[in-house]
Structures are given as C-alpha cells and as structure tokens.
C-alpha cells in the first residue's frame, strides 16, 4: 500500500485539525480529498510530508515514515500556494529542473536523464514554448502547470497535489486532469485535494470526505451522495 494512515490525530497548538483519521491509498489510483475550508486537507498533506507531527497514530508511506519517504524521493508535492518573488529571474525550465535536485549530487550537475525528464515534463504540461520565460511573467494557470511539471520531473511514485484546480483557467484544468490520468496509467499513486466537486466522478477512483475526521471514503458514486456532501460542506466545524 503506497499510503497508510492509522488513527492520525494532528494539528497546531490549540487546534486539532485532524482527529482519528485512517485511510489508505492503493497503487496507481487517483484519490480526491474533499472537504470544506478548514476541514484539514492541507494539514493532511503536511502530515504526509512530515511537516506536521502526529500527536497520535502513524503514517506509513511505502512502508516507511514520512520523513524517510521524502528523503528517498518517494513523494512529490504540488503546494496550494507557492510564494514567488516576481522580480527574481528564475525561468520556467529552471523551476522544473528543481524537481531533479533529489536525483543529483551535492554539486547539482545535470545529466542527460535530468534534461530528458525536464523536457518531457514541459511537454506534458504544454510549457515547452515558454520554457525560457521568467516564472513571474506567467498567468496563474501557467504557473500552476510549472509547479506540476516540477513535481512530474521528480518521478516519484506518489504525487500529492493540494488544490491543483484552484484559480486556474479551463485549459490548464484540462491539461492537469490529463496529466493525472497519465500518471495513474504509468503506475503513480495520486492524492489531490479539492473543493470543486465538478469533475471528481471522472477523475477519481476513490473519494475521501474530510471534516476533521473522515466522514466517508470509497468510490465516487458511493461517497458523493447529497446526505454525505451536506455533512461535509453544510455544517460548520464545531
Ligand atoms: N499554521 C497553522 N497554525 C494554526 N492553525 C492552523 C494552521 N494551518 C491551519 N490551521 C487550522 O487548522 C485547521 C485545518 O486547516 P487546513 O488548512 O488544513 O484546512 P483545509 O481543508 O486545507 O482548508 P482550505 O480549503 O481553506 O485550504 C483550520 O482550523 C485552520 O485554521
């Protein structure tokens, strides 16, 4: 099992963002994590990345803990927001090459395999034509695709994407959806968080409804019922 979360409780001083959360992600599947604002989606990503500690329970990623899984390049991650300085002169291809850093030595010498991975990731996200443009000059959708391309270049067997469709145009949304389908076909396990219900049926094999606890988990047609969605989105977190 690529990801196994067992009775996880985690959060911040004075805030229990996740309570007794258990879930599993099967190999080569796309799972959508759905929940209202503040339901704990980003915190779950942080916990899977080893950035928020568990106060109870545990996480196993390919049989090891989160920190070790990252060090072994088993996990790639597309954050919800990436803080970038628009005046900092970094190009699209340089951003994507950063995805190769885990494969490089201390001196970060690029090898043909690194350049091939970058070229392919730029093609998959349709950014080849603007690869030399500064990242600060891109639209929100193009910038999101650049961060998806960086994660693709990493070629890790698990990819986490926090709100990949938030604030992107229709073209970028379709491209990212295609990338997720391709990843699954190539054996990668994918977890995305979203609060957009549209498209989840065709995109996800499994859906997890989160509201600090797991309210429901399973195939979209089982989980996405009016009653369960009202529970997840209709009630304020108490
Ligand atoms: N760094 C932090 N320090 C303290 N509390 C936090 C921090 N980050 C999140 N929280 C709190 O933890 C809870 C879960 O937040 P989280 O960001 O995980 O939710 P989310 O489902 O990702 O929300 P959104 O859809 O708005 O991104 C919220 O009550 C939030 O206020």
Automatic annotation (TrEMBL):
Which Pfam families does the UniProt record give? ABC_tran
User: Could you tell me which InterPro entries the record lists for this protein?
Assistant: AAA+_ATPase (IPR003593), ABC_transporter-like_ATP-bd (IPR003439), ABC_transporter-like_CS (IPR017871), Metal_Ion_Import_ABC (IPR050153), P-loop_NTPase (IPR027417)
Q: Which residues form the ABC transporter domain?
A: 3-237
Q: Is the keyword Cell cycle assigned to this protein?
A: no
Task: Give the Gene Ontology MF terms in alphabetical order.
Answer: ATP binding; ATP hydrolysis activity
**Highest taxon in the source lineage:** Bacteria
- Which PANTHER family does its entry note? IRON TRANSPORT SYSTEM ATP-BINDING PROTEIN HI_0361-RELATED (PTHR42734:SF5), METAL TRANSPORT SYSTEM ATP-BINDING PROTEIN TM_0124-RELATED (PTHR42734)
Spell out the protein name for this chain. Metal ABC transporter ATP-binding protein
């Amino acid at each position: 099992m690529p990801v196994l979360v067992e009775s996880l409780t985690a959060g911040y001083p004075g805030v229990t963002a996740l309570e007794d959360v258990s879930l599993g992600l099967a190999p080569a599947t796309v799972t959508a994590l759905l929940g209202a604002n503040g339901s704990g989606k980003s915190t779950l990503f942080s916990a899977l990345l080893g950035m928020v500690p568990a106060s109870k329970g545990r996480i196993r990623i390919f049989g090891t803990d989160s920190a070790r899984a990252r060090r072994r390049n088993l996990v790639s991650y597309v954050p919800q927001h990436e803080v970038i300085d628009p005046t900092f002169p970094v190009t699209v291809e340089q951003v994507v090459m950063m995805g190769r850093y885990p494969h490089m030595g201390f001196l970060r010498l690029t090898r043909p395999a690194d350049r091939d991975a970058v070229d392919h990731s730029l093609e998959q996200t349709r950014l080849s034509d603007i690869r030399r443009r500064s990242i600060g000059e891109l639209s929100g959708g193009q910038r999101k695709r650049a961060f998806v391309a960086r994660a693709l270049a990493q070629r890790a067997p698990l990819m986490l994407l926090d709100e990949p469709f938030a604030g992107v145009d229709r073209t970028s949304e379709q491209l990212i959806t295609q990338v997720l389908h391709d990843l699954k076909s190539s054996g990668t396990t994918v977890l995305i968080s979203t609060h957009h219900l549209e498209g989840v049926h065709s995109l996800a094999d499994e859906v997890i409804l989160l509201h600090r606890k797991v309210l429901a988990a399973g195939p979209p047609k089982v989980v996405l019922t009016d009653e369960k969605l009202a529970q997840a989105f209709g009630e304020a977190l108490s």
